[in-house]
């Protein structure tokens, strides 16, 4: 997830862009993927994938599912992508696999969810990927993003509960159109999309028979897990490669501050890190480095990838190798540059790094609003952290949101609506057929469900795994643990579908 700047000092990490919130110090809170600073051309923009994978459709969606004011009856066009090549058809009650879209362009997530395409032939499944309202091309208010994002009057319709209701409405209508009322629906999602998949199964058991919820931090909310957990995992990722690597990064914040205060220091930093000469600020430099370390930890995949940025296999290891390649004190900044260069310039095309680039290639900006309303995920750094120490302050966070949107966050709404406290006991009593996948190298796994709950609510935990690695396309280089996990997920989903057919045969 990514870095978003909010008033300069305040940026938010989204889930794929870990919404990073930089407060007055240089501290940053992560969000999911990162829209900030992409010197690379994304492969997905080349268009070659765009046409061959699915057909694009639009559905007339209701603006507000929970209100009968005349204004609520307004509609908007919601995008969804569909692939029926492998579908066994309505007569055979062949399954429908639905991806519950995240906080960004649905085509981007679709192209990073190869698992569904690769398994569709085996299941004879119809594939549907639904875009989340207010993202991509699914913008209310006539598709006019300026109006939709203008202020709380219009942004107020951007929420997880509205999104889930959109998904239910669309799926029910699509099944009706296909005369496929009896086809079982399984929902899939990664990151925030994974949270939505799990919540969808919990809230709409009559629409989906099961959910694969990958890297979904449904417990990263107030009073559920420690606010330090995210940061601790990033720290551990680097420490696990080498103690020196951890120490160099940990020591860099003070070093950078000190150098920046010297005469000519800022210019020295600019040149060392090859920052473009249009804009240079020490806070922005620190945020830029922090983004590199956090997102690389999140996407520490075992094979070369291009999700947030093009990266080699095991990129955290590569970064630490760069940092460890010289122990001489005076090379320190140069080594940090080399490590950051792995995240920002693996393709080798960057001329310089623009700290003032606020482009958002995956359209993740709406997360800021979501973080300021219901997705309040407390984050902090303790004294062992690889980043500078920082305590979570709901008051500061809330003040920033009020300043930005003239609204106050509702930190307890998500747990009121979906639960979270005592999750094991509650899900045991109330739900079934959910896979929670987490990779423990992924800092978001700290807010994930890591324990088996019942026979059908299963936690699959990969020690070496990163952010929703299971949903990615398979490659020849995939390690055995990853192949095993995907196989296990297929077997579990197959058992749900079998059970469903047995149950309806009895009726
Ligand atoms: C569905 O996806 C496959 C690749 O998995 C592709 O070959 C096929 O053309 C796609 N079908 C449609 C209708 O887009
Ligand atoms: C929000 O923006 C719209 C359109 O620009 C405007 O009419 C409305 O008064 C604004 N509402 C608030 C609460 O600022
Ligand atoms: C179902 O069919 C109606 C009538 O053609 C259409 O307006 C609607 O968009 C379709 N639903 C979906 C989910 O595509
Ligand atoms: C990016 O990598 C290429 C190839 O290694 C290198 O020539 C170039 O200087 C790098 N760009 C920056 C900004 O460091
Ligand atoms: C949960 O149970 C499955 C078997 O159904 C097992 O493979 C998996 O390792 C268990 N998960 C945990 C976290 O113990």
Structure notes:
Keywords: Glycoprotein, Hydrolase, Protease, Signal. InterPro entries: AB_hydrolase_fold, Peptidase_S28, Ser_carbopepase_S28_SKS. This is Lysosomal Pro-X carboxypeptidase. By secondary structure, the chain is α/β, with parallel strands linked by helices. It folds into two domains: 51-222 and 423-505, Rossmann fold; 229-345, Four Helix Bundle (Hemerythrin (Met), subunit A) (Up-down Bundle). The protein contains 18 helices and 14 strands. It has helices spanning 48-52, 106-111, 114-123, 145-148, 152-155, 160-177, 192-203, 229-241, 243-261, 265-272, 282-298, 315-324, 332-344, 367-373, 394-405, 413-418, 423-430, 480-505, and strands at residues 4-6, 10-14, 17-18, 29-32, 55-62, 75-83, 96-100, 126-130, 185-190, 210-214, 305-306, 310-311, 434-439, 457-462. Strands 5-6-8-7-9-10-13-14 form an eight-stranded mixed sheet, sandwiched between helices. β9 (185-190), α7 (192-203) and β10 (210-214) form a beta-alpha-beta unit. α9 (243-261) packs across α12 and α12 runs antiparallel to α13. The chain is globular and about 80 Å long. Residues 1-13, 17-30 and 33-49 have low confidence and may be disordered. Bound molecules: 2-acetamido-2-deoxy-beta-D-glucopyranose (5 copies). Residues 451-452, 458-459, 461 line the site of one 2-acetamido-2-deoxy-beta-D-glucopyranose.
